[in-house]
UniProtKB/TrEMBL annotation:
SUPFAM superfamilies: Multidrug resistance efflux transporter EmrE. This is EamA domain-containing protein. It comes from Tortispora caseinolytica NRRL Y-17796. InterPro entries: EamA_dom, EmrE-like, Solute_c_fam_35_mem_F3/F4. Residues 211-359 form the EamA domain. GO terms for cellular component: membrane. The lineage of its organism: Eukaryota, Fungi, Dikarya, Ascomycota, Saccharomycotina. Keywords: Membrane, Transmembrane, Transmembrane helix. The chain crosses the membrane at residues 24-42, 62-81, 126-143, 155-172, 179-198, 210-229, 249-274, 286-308, 315-336, 342-363. It holds the Pfam family EamA.
Amino acid sequence: DNNDTTQRERPTSEQIAASERRRYIYSGLALCTALFAFVLQTETAGYISATLGYKKPIFMMYITHGSWIWLEPLQFFAIGFSKQIMKRPGFSWKHEWKSHLNNLRGTAAIALSYSLGNLSSYMMKTTLKLVCALTVAGASWYIAVNLTTPSDLTAIYNTSAFFAYAFSVPILKDKFSWLKSGSVALAIVGVVIVAYSGPSSADSDFPNRGIGNLVIAVGAVLYGLYEVLYKRLACPPGDEVSPRRQALFANLVGSLIGMWTLALVWTLLLFLHLTGIEKFELPSGSAVGIIIASVIGNVLFSASFLILMALTSPVLSSVAALLTIFLVALVDWLLFGKPLSLQAIIGGVIIIVAFILLSYASWAEISGSGEDIYDDLD
């Protein structure tokens, strides 16, 4: 009623503070989950390729990105079962489904208010744009991995953090900040130090190194663009939508990206199979379990990373992702006995310092005011 509407438009300072606390908590949980999941994905993907010898990179990209389609169904059932376990009064799956759809439609409508057109059409077109940028960026990594050195690959691809910042100024209307740009540059320096801390590869091993570096550079630009487009086109503003609804909507967007991947990228697999570039072969029985673990790692990472970008900014999320580079090196040392050089430690510390500086610079962006805080109480 009108009374309720008036009340919703005027949340108290305590309710706003509680909503901001939830934003920090959700962001922290998303970051921790993303770091853990990325290590799981990286270690299993490396084992599949190097140890099991299953080298079908585009197929692996297809099933990992395609598996995002499960994000929304898993989210719905997780929420429903949690309410059922807590014995929420009046709970029914039919009512929960209706409430869930209304929630997502309401959030989508707020995102749509910045564009013109039909709601369903807007969502489909938006996620198609995102999947195009993401697929080309992802494919560039898989193509370049066989053309250039691992060090070049890591160092160049992670300059996507710089391009995310470069695109965020004109597209998201972010104000230029020397502290932010310096933090991003410092993080990339840290990545370069870690990337080149191991044994170097001979140029003779990679005769097409220059082409590989060019391909991965294009991928870095497109991945930075993908992150900023996601924030601009598929994330409702934080000062109008609660952290909970932003997180729920992020997983819907992820599911639609997964749907488009499954619907379109199989044509690329067919082309690669017919031309002999990547012959389609099912993995052996021993590889299936590890592939499933890798897919689970990717789904967890992608869901938490989409949520993190929705709650914070593409630049902060991108630099946060750079923490995984040092984390993977640390896990390799602790679990597999791979030596961790002083150079790698220094690079890792630099990345951590850069992330802390950027978090400080982005603090105002993470907090929001005037949110639909009542939604968090539903």
